[in-house]
Write a structure and sequence with these properties.
It is a single chain. Helix content is about 70%, strand content about 0%. It is an all-alpha fold. Helix 1 packs across helix 2, helix 1 packs across helix 5 and helix 4 crosses helix 5. The chain is globular and about 40 Å long. The termini are far apart.
Length: about 130
């Protein structure tokens, strides 16, 4: 277990990975068709969706998570991004919260996953 604070970008990096695993764990029960699995994953793992999810999840954040979210939105983004910078910053903010808790507080990470399960509609038809 990593006990010291990491760079905020490191939390975003691991948060991106655990968020995608969270989504994939839920989409694999939706179909066995690989093309559909990819479509479902891309539907949920993108800056636009993650920004909407962040908005609904924010009222559940602790003071520490709100501070991390604020800091994450201030991370400079690459000018080569093809998406809106504000959208990317919000998505990164969600990833930082998930990454931070995944590293430092697994119980809180699980709580956030449970809340996300209640927010996300997995009954879509693509």
């Amino acid at each position: 277990m990593i006990l010291e604070e990491l760079n905020i970008k490191n939390y975003a990096h691991i948060g991106d990975a655990v968020y995608e695993v969270f989504i994939r764990e839920r989409t694999i029960i939706m179909t066995s068709n690989l093309n559909k699995l990819h479509q479902y994953t891309v539907h949920y793992v993108n800056a636009g969706f993650q920004t909407k999810l962040l908005e609904k999840l924010t009222p559940h954040f602790t003071e520490k998570e709100l501070e991390l979210s604020r800091r994450a939105r201030n991370i400079p983004t690459s000018s080569s991004r093809r998406i809106d910078r504000a959208l990317h910053s919000s998505a990164t903010s969600l990833e930082v919260i998930l990454g931070y808790n995944y590293i430092h507080n697994k119980e809180r990470y699980k709580e956030l996953c449970t809340i996300m399960e209640g927010i996300i509609d997995f009954n879509i038809n693509l």
